[in-house]
């Protein structure tokens, strides 16, 4: 393969500096949309192609799994382009689609599978799969490599059980949610229960320590880890075991971290340990053929509630550089051109963020045209706001045949704001996707099937076993389960050990004993299979043998049908996983499901409007962005109103939101809003007042659309009827149905209708011209 690296021409000189830097530390700081992520991606390609670094020796940390996948895809494409040059002497884009895909799959086999690219959580859980058996905590608790990963709701229910049942605490004083939050914070700060107690010696701290200890016992008994452990345990393991650290230090010669401003202390500790091999003295560090490159923007630090700390970014040069007089230029690159947003949008973002005191000034020069002004809109209430947004989307879509639904994003401060937008989108039939709604892997039926799989992979995982032991019902009642759990407790063993011990089981009444034995045999059979047949096959057999799908079929409801579809989709996910990955073991599959983040719902190129919180929008870009709910107390949120530090974080969040927009930006707020039940007058956000007035407009075009909406509404006055639950109606395209819910009243009414053929839909009767029949 040629070493003439062609793709460097896609970069500006500063990006090239970051990409071509070979050894030692390098910090890339720059504002939003300046090509940081692009530089990081190209750097990986360059390390491999030009410097012949083995992909195995590279560790690349991204903020979401989706970002990791995109990064791998991009690298794969760059490699395929290079390969085309060397093999065919031709440009990649001139090859046929078939040739392109052949080259890509060749590259995939050679390089991409070996690349360690993912989130902190996915990368370090992978490391734990290798080495967790060498770890024990300060109370001697141990885990094995088949550990389960408990999600937030699992952790929450364990804490609740400890607080209310095991320790019989007053759950008003020790609210399980806040206790769990305290434990999670302790872990994010790297504190074990003992260390936590030392920092919190008063009564509350001592009780939380006790819960923390019981919680760790429960995790260890289930051979399970929570999300925070996936970061904390590697730190402790590296500190405990020099050989383990040394192995990973030698392996990862080149470390890259995107969105470094949102790193927390434990994550920083991991990077630091891997880079320095635990050596504090800079004189002992060896930078030959080694590097660490981090990219970030302190103005986009928005995760302090998860203990992220942007001073870590600011201290990078001090931490890793040798502090020589010329260090600044050697260990830092600034990117100053913005490639994403039109000038007006960029100018607004820059002016807004200048109101923050805690920041380093940056230059961000536009490279695109001035663009349009920023549209600012005041709506009557949240419903009118949603109507305004959806009308704009429809108008833009009609005016421009090139545009697709995927070009639009609606960003809000809290998830609860999505509902009016969803209703409006459903009514108008526009496809949309909610990023960060109920995750696929959080749905009941999916958690059920995954629990079967977790129990197969890790039989010590009692939580999962208990979830499925009588799901679907198979005659193992509560009394039986209690008897088995008690036996396990008394004998100091796991539930699974009891289940497979026929002597214990046979002490149960005849029918229960038979049911338990059948269940244990079924799990055992799958366990035996798992090392010889593909996971997909085991899943298929299990779905049948467990009676899970049959049970749903017997229910015969629409809801049950949906659940069956979801279970089938899970089976598809296994097949896809098997196609795309090197390690196709059950453990690896389960790990990918546990760590799939909210953002993974957003599929590339999907033609649907995206709805998400501002936090989820980090790193993304859209041609048209609607930033909604700009009201005091909502955005900035009420907690920040009398807290200057929190207010600065809200402003950074607003900066992130504004800089997602490429061509058009809309900012909206409402005169009054119903949020969490009560209707309140709303005051426009101070952030709107901080934007330069000359960049804002309340567009003439917008007035037109608003008038149009008004006339649509008034034209359909005759259709404002008193709709009632139970009314049978005729819809022009959907046929006959029955009203099951009525939302709102007067000209704001919408109705849910169950259609005989299509199932439930929410309809605006003014638009749909319903007839009573
Ligand atoms: P954020 O701070 O939001 O994470 P970022 O700094 O990571 O942004 P990227 O997402 O890498 O920025 O780039 C923003 C946009 O600019 C992308 O569409 C990217 O393809 C484009 N871009 C980056 N560098 C260049 C370049 N040198 N020439 C042309 N386009 C570029
Ligand atoms: Mg980025």
From TrEMBL:
Q: Where does ATP bind?
A: 30-37
- UniProt domain UvrD-like helicase ATP-binding: residue ranges: 9-342
**Pfam families associated with the record:** PcrA_UvrD_tudor (PF21196), UvrD-helicase (PF00580), UvrD_C (PF13361)
Q: Which Gene3D superfamilies match?
A: 1.10.10.160, P-loop containing nucleotide triphosphate hydrolases, PCRA, domain 4
EC number of this enzyme: 5.6.2.4
Q: Which GO terms describe its molecular function?
A: DNA helicase activity; hydrolase activity
Under which name does UniProt file this protein? ATP-dependent DNA helicase
Q: Which organism is it from?
A: Plectonema radiosum NIES-515
Q: What is the lineage of its organism?
A: Bacteria, Bacillati, Cyanobacteriota, Cyanophyceae, Oscillatoriophycideae
The encoding gene: pcrA
């Amino acid at each position: 393969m040629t070493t003439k690296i062609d793709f460097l021409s896609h970069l500006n000189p500063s990006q090239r500096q970051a990409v071509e830097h070979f050894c030692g530390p390098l910090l890339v700081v720059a504002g939003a949309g300046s090509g940081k992520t692009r530089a990081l991606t190209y750097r990986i390609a360059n390390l491999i192609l030009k410097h012949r670094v083995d992909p195995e020796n590279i560790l690349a940390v991204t903020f979401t799994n989706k970002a990791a996948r995109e990064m791998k895809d991009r690298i794969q494409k760059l490699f395929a382009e290079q390969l085309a040059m060397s093999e065919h002497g031709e440009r990649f884009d001139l090859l046929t689609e078939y040739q392109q895909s052949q080259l890509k799959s060749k590259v995939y086999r050679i390089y991409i599978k070996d690349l360690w690219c993912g989130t902190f959580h996915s990368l370090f859980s992978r490391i734990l799969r290798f080495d967790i058996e060498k770890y024990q905590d300060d109370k001697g608790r141990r885990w094995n490599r088949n550990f389960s990963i408990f999600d937030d709701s699992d952790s929450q229910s364990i804490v609740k059980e400890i607080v209310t049942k095991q320790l019989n605490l007053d759950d008003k004083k020790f609210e399980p949610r806040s206790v769990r939050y305290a434990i999670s914070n302790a872990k994010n700060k790297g504190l074990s229960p003992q260390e936590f107690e030392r920092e919190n010696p008063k009564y509350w701290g001592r009780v939380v320590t006790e819960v923390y200890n019981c919680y760790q016992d429960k995790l260890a008994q289930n051979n399970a880890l929570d999300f925070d452990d996936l970061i904390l345990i590697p730190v402790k393991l590296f500190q405990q075991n020099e050989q383990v650290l040394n192995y990973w230090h030698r392996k990862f010669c080149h470390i890259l971290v995107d969105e470094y401003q949102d790193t927390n202390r434990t994550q920083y500790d991991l990077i630091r340990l891997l880079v320095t091999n635990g050596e504090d003295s800079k004189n002992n560090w060896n930078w030959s053929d080694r590097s660490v490159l981090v990219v970030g923007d302190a103005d986009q630090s928005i995760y302090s509630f998860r203990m992220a700390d942007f001073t870590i970014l600011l201290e990078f040069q001090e931490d890793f550089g040798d502090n020589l007089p010329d260090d600044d230029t050697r260990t830092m690159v600034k990117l100053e051109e913005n490639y994403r947003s039109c000038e007006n949008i960029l100018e607004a973002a820059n002016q807004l963020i200048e109101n923050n005191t805690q920041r380093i000034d940056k230059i961000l020069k536009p490279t695109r045209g001035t663009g349009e002004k920023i549209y600012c809109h005041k709506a009557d209430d949240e419903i009118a706001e949603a109507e305004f947004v959806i009308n704009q989307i429809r108008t833009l879509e009609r005016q421009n045949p090139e545009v697709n639904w995927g070009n639009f994003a609606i960003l809000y401060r809290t998830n609860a704001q999505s509902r009016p937008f969803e209703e409006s989108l459903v009514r108008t039939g526009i496809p949309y996707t909610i990023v960060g709604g109920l995750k696929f892997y959080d749905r009941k039926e999916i958690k059920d099937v995954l629990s079967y799989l977790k129990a197969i992979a890790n039989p010590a995982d009692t939580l999962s076993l208990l979830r499925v032991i009588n799901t679907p019902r198979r005659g193992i009642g509560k009394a039986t389960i209690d008897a088995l759990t008690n036996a396990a407790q008394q004998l100091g063993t796991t539930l699974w050990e009891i289940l497979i011990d026929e002597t214990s089981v046979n002490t149960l009444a005849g029918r229960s004993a038979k049911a338990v034995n059948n269940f244990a045999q079924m799990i055992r059979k799958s366990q035996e299979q798992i090392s010889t047949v593909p996971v997909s096959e085991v899943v298929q057999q299990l779905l049948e043998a467990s009676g899970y799908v049959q049970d749903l079929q017997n229910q015969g409801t629409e809801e049950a049908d949906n659940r069956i579809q979801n279970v089938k989709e899970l089976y598809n996910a296994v097949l896809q996983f098997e196609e795309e990955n090197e390690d196709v073991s059950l453990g690896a599959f389960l790990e990918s499901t546990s760590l799939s983040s909210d953002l993974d719902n957003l599929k590339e190129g999907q033609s649907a409007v995206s709805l998400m919180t501002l936090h989820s929008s980090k790193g993304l870009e859209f041609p048209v962005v609607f930033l909604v709910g700009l009201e005091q107390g909502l955005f900035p949120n009420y907690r920040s109103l009398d807290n200057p530090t929190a207010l600065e974080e809200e402003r950074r969040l607003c900066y992130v939101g504004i800089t997602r927009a490429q061509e058009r930006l809309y900012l909206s707020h409402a005169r009054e809003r119903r949020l969490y039940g009560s209707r309140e007058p709303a005051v426009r956000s101070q952030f709107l007042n901080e934007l330069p007035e000359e960049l804002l407009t309340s567009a003439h075009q917008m007035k037109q659309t608003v008038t149009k909406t008004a006339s649509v509404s008034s034209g359909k006055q005759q259709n404002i009827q008193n709709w009632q639950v139970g009314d049978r109606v005729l819809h022009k395209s959907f046929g006959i149905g029955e009203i099951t819910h009525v939302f709102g009243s007067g000209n704001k009414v919408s109705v849910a209708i169950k259609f005989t053929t299509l199932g439930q839909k929410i309809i605006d009767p003014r638009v749909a011209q319903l007839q009573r029949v």
